[in-house]
Design goal:
mainly alpha; 4 helices; transport
Length: 108
């Protein structure tokens, strides 16, 4: 169950980042409110996941999934550039996330 909490927390981290972008610097009320709600829910779920998962692994995976997800949204939704160096570094992030997940010492 801890991994489900962590994945849901990461999805909400992505939603928060998207809402922050759409909130245009806290000038739009609905996206700003959604960003706050998503942030609070994300941290709550992360805290639940930390009951069973190592903090370093869980936090790295939470932020890593959020980072990769928001880069993808930036590229496909907002037309941000996707250079070979960005692809390479995102690949490193994904490999690192997977490595942390499947390396020894994790609960559940």
């Amino acid at each position: 169950m801890a991994w489900i909490y962590l994945l849901l927390a990461a999805a909400l981290e992505i939603a928060m980042g998207l809402a922050l972008k759409l909130g245009q610097g806290w000038t739009r009320v609905l996206p700003s409110a959604l960003a706050i709600a998503a942030a609070l829910a994300s941290i709550y779920l992360l805290a639940l996941a930390l009951r069973a998962l190592p903090i370093g692994t869980a936090y790295a995976i939470w932020t890593g999934i959020g980072t990769v997800g928001l880069v993808a949204i930036g590229v496909f939704w907002f037309g941000e550039s996707l250079t070979w160096s960005r692809v390479g570094f995102l690949t490193l992030a994904i490999v690192g996330i997977a490595g942390l997940r499947f390396s020894g010492g994790d609960a559940a």
